[in-house]
Amino acid sequence: MAMKLGTEIPGTSAEGNITTIWVPTIANIKAPTLTELDAGTDISNYVMLGGWSFEPSQDTVSDQRENAVQDFGAPGRKSAGDISIEVIDNTNTEHEEQNEAVTLMHEGASGYIVRRRGMATDAPLAVGQKLTVVSVTCGEKQVINPDANTMIRSKIPLFAKAPGWESETAEISAPKGGRLRP
Question: Which residues pair with 120 in a beta bridge?
């Protein structure tokens, strides 16, 4: 079916519709279970607006044929690029007890950043929802010098590790022998 010129396409605001979870273990990043995700920690309230940096890229394999006058290409190696997350950092503040993002993602920690877009942050995770899942090791926390009218925050560099990542291609699955959520 062809789209007619002038057809309005609805959009969904990003405001309040992104969830970020730190998950310690996932057996299959293509199909994380509700049980695995429930064992994680929702760090959405710590992540600064625009603070998630993950821009995967893919190289091109050159395919130049002797009998052709055109150069072709094929999909090549993928890279996660520079991954980082900017979070509220309550170190040494009156809110020090509420510093889960910095505490969980300390230098050397390994786990999974799981992101869900397009649904309210307080909507429950459910079987069939699409996720971005990135297997990472955390680097050294970088303190961000404050600007006027900003919160105290830090940037945590992340390094992709095996088994890699799924960019909104992972789908929540039911735990083995478990019940499906509505």
Answer: none
